Amino acid sequence: MSANQRNSAVRAALATALILAAPCARAQAEGESQDAFETKHIFGFTEGTDVGDAGDKELEFTTTGSIGKRGGGGYNAIEQKGVYEGAASDRFGYEVGPLGLSQQIANVPGLANLSQTSFSGVAAEPKYIFVKRGIDAPFGLAVSVAPEWDRIDPVTGAHVSNFVLETKIYLDSELIEKKLYAAANLIYAPETDHETGVGFSQYALTGATAALTWRITPTIAIGAETEFYQVYNSLGFTGRIGSAAYVGPTLWAQITPKAFMSLAWSAQIAGNPANGGPSTLDLYNQSDIARERVHLVVGFAF
Predict the structure, then answer these.
(1) Number of neighbouring beta carbons within 10 Å of residue 224
(2) What is the DSSP letter of 110?
(3) What pLDDT, in 10s, does the model give residues 243-279?
(4) What's this model's pTM, rounded to 2 decimal places?
(5) Of 150, 86, 133, whose CA–CA distance to 299 is shortest?
(6) CA distance 229 to 233
(7) Domains and CATH numbers, the chain
């Protein structure tokens, strides 16, 4: 992707955020209850522990963009996830839904040139709160184990049958009442792939993220987060392909009493393929690591 295309993609995401955030003042004037404030989506890529109240139901649409790869060329992948989210209790929530993927790849080392948009798989995410913030302790602790099946490889675009089982630990805390919030996530995502004509392969991604968010009004919060990921050519912690660190800003807005949006953008500030060799560079480009990432979530309660 050229610099102009990349800037256009970022501007489009920011414009979407501003359009969606515009009605926030009206939502506040309509008397939105502030007691129902949840931390799940206020941190960007990092996620808070909350799952909502028992019986809550939402439709959520998540757009995640990966822009640029090491070694040049043009790379742009946008994954769209639409999920039904529910809360069976105030400690157990779940979401399930289909995935769509749009990819444009040109002259990236280790990747085939392509341009495609397709239904790409399905995902589910059950999540349980072991320690509820403000009730059990001053911090929250939750765990999710999320299975995902992909028919299109989310990085290379190849037609595959991939299974991912992402395990995530969530921590969050309210540092200043109704104002300053902090969160951290730990991630382990093993993956088995089967590509026609290639056979089976195994990968694993590990990660740690941390974020701070300041609630500047009852309906708007801004913050920053940092992320670090390592990718392995195995299900364990051997055969490291490479690593990357990211930083970026976040924005959350309550559009109406029953609708919200969350936007995050992050840029890679450090990262190298293992050993730095050409063959490792190719593997690095076949991993989940990109130069820039954008994350937009829009949700509607009903």
Answers:
(1) 17
(2) T
(3) 999 999 999 999 999 999 999 999 999 998 887 666 7
(4) 0.86
(5) 86
(6) 14
(7) 3-301 (2.40.160.40)
